[in-house]
Amino acid sequence: MDLHLFDYTEPGNFSDISWPCNSSYCILIDTVQCPTMPHKSILLYTLSFIYIFIFVIGMIANPVVVWVNIQAKTTGYDTHCYILNLAITDLWVVITIPVWVVSLVQDNQWHMGELTCRVTHLVFSVNLFGSTFFLTCMSMDRYLSITYFTSTSSRRKKMVHHIVCVLVWLLALCMSLPSTYYLKSVVSASNNETYCWSFYPEHSIKEWLIGMELVSVVLGFIVPFSIITVFYFLLSRAISASGDQENQSIRKIIFSYVVVFLVCWLPYHVAVLLDIFSILHYLPFTCQLENTLFTALHVTQCLSLVHCCINPVLYSFINHKYRYKLMKAFTFQYSAQTGLTQLTNTTRVSETEYLVLEQNSK
């Protein structure tokens, strides 16, 4: 993804930066000056607290999903491989959050070196793209599994899932390499403030900026959201045709998948599109506009990372088969007499015991 949150400094204050280019475009940017954005520190510190909250929740929920999937080997449904990889991508995203928070509270400055900037950016971007792509694969797989591949052997399905997962990781890596390659650590000439920004080839800076943002919008949102919406709509219709009594609740869950993805990602990509219009001068430049874009890009990307906390609940814990495996993996048996918890062998926890435990916990 385009990391506007982490490399988008206050607009217009570029005159004292040692820009590694001599093009007329860079000179034009250097001459633009805007006053300091009001309440900027309050915004950045507030977002930092929200990121810390996302980090804590994500570091609790996603490792549980990873651990249970590894312990259980199989969760009894076809999307096991995607859920495991989704949890891994979300986990790596939240692991990088403390690094970005340190930069955020320092007014987006970067004092951790260029290598750290590139590595952290690469890890963040690869896993953010990967998370979106695995959600997309999951929507396709769930529909195809109940319509076209019902008679396919589990071994062949497993092999296909593994191949798709490898391709997803490679695609996410390829989409993240260009922005990572052009990252540089630059120092302000007047006050020695250091920033980590992307510097594209000097004769095509504008084209690179627009191109990278369009890639983020099209491949990071429009295409995945279209696929997710279409396949979950088809899945909902297929489930309705089956006549199952649980159709209504299942359709609500499917609807929640689409809504959560839309709510998390649509605001951010709208802000990115507005930023593209600003670069193309379709929106007349004003300091108020630039301050608004600065705020919008920061706030909406903060909202987008909430998905790292929601995904484990929405795609794992809400599934009754997964909850059963979770109970088996943790293997806790409650004693009514002593009130103590006794660890038991996971292989001895039957489905009947699980149901009893679940009823007693209500």
From TrEMBL:
Family: Belongs to the G-protein coupled receptor 1 family.
GO molecular function: chemokine binding; coreceptor activity; G protein-coupled receptor activity
GO biological process, one term: chemotaxis
SUPFAM superfamilies for the chain: Family A G protein-coupled receptor-like (SSF81321)
Domain G-protein coupled receptors family 1 profile residue range list: 61-315
Main location, first listed in the record: membrane
Keywords carried by this UniProt record: Cell membrane, Disulfide bond, G-protein coupled receptor, Glycoprotein, Membrane, Receptor, Transducer, Transmembrane, Transmembrane helix
Compartmental location: Cell membrane
Membrane topology: Multi-pass membrane protein
UniProt KW Transport keyword: no
GO CC terms of this entry: plasma membrane
Residues passing through the membrane, by range: 42-70, 82-102, 122-140, 160-183, 208-234, 254-283, 295-318
Record protein name field: G-protein coupled receptors family 1 profile domain-containing protein
